[in-house]
Automatic annotation (TrEMBL):
Domain of life: Bacteria
Official protein name in the record: Phytanoyl-CoA dioxygenase family protein
Record has Oxidoreductase as a keyword: yes
Cited Gene3D superfamilies: q2cbj1_9rhob like domain (2.60.120.620)
UniProt-recorded Gene Ontology molecular function terms: 2-oxoglutarate-dependent dioxygenase activity
Species of the source: Pseudoalteromonas xiamenensis
Pfam family name, one: PhyH
């Protein structure tokens, strides 16, 4: 699928996968930075990492990376490719934050269905969130991986009774139970998967899973932005495109 058809597909289904979207040279630039972040984060969070961690966040903050390292991440976020994708899917996208997804240490640890909003919103608020504004994840796998499982159209439609029982672990269900409406999207290095944070989804563990997520939001979500994740003026001056930065 190309960008010309991405907007309509995302609007209808809540996600879009673009194969071989990012050049390997760009990934070669950012991967060492992401792995450096991961090594430093693990050292600082080793108990959590060994217990159950499957992701970290805040890569573009100053916590674990130096300015020159952060500049390479911002070069990706502010690239022509990423800016075109974000502005295709959202009317006025704003870079929000970043996350890193990896395999759990425990090979028997199960993944789980969720909507991002369920961790800070009531059920009624989660329903209201389906009317917008939107937050999108742009997942960038740095290695071939099993990918994601998504429930198409769930960015605008509420859970089926089974799906609600599964993600809330009610009536004897577990959040790792299969959902018949789930669609698996396998990902390779160079692919990009953009999906709504509002939709039902789960990551699939296995292979060398190591994926960078760039999050963009609409202006109505401006209060959720934190300046620590944004580029300073010196870094902004080096970027190809500033359209996605506040």
């Amino acid at each position: 699928m190309d960008l010309e058809h991405a907007a309509s597909h995302y609007e209808e289904y809540g996600f879009v996968c673009l194969r071989n979207f990012l050049p390997q040279t760009m990934l070669d630039m950012v991967e060492p930075v992401v792995r450096t972040f991961h090594d430093r984060w693990v050292e600082d969070n080793h108990l959590f990492y060994k217990a159950s961690a499957i992701n970290s966040s805040g890569l573009t903050a100053e916590t674990y990376l130096e300015k020159e390292e952060r500049q390479k991440l911002f070069a990706l976020i502010g690239s022509e490719e990423m800016s075109k994708l974000a502005t295709t899917l959202l009317k006025r996208p704003i870079y929000m934050n970043s996350q890193l997804f990896f395999n759990p240490i425990n090979p028997h640890q199960k993944n789980y269905w969720h909507r991002d909003g369920q961790y800070h919103l009531s059920l009624e608020e989660q329903k209201d969130a389906l009317q917008g504004p939107d937050i999108i994840h742009v997942r960038i796998p740095l290695a071939n991986e099993p990918g994601m499982e998504l429930v198409p159209k769930s960015h605008k439609t509420w859970d089926s009774p089974l799906a609600l029982d599964v993600r809330l672990e009610k009536n004897g269900h577990k959040k790792s139970d299969p959902l018949p409406e789930g669609q698996i999207v396998q990902l390779n290095r160079g692919d990009v998967l953009a999906f709504s944070a509002n939709m039902l989804h789960r990551g699939l563990y296995g292979q060398e899973r190591f994926a960078l997520d760039i999050l963009f939001c609409e202006p109505e979500m401006h209060s959720f932005l934190n300046d620590v994740h944004q580029p300073c003026a010196e870094i902004k001056a080096t970027l190809e495109c500033l359209a996605v930065f506040p």
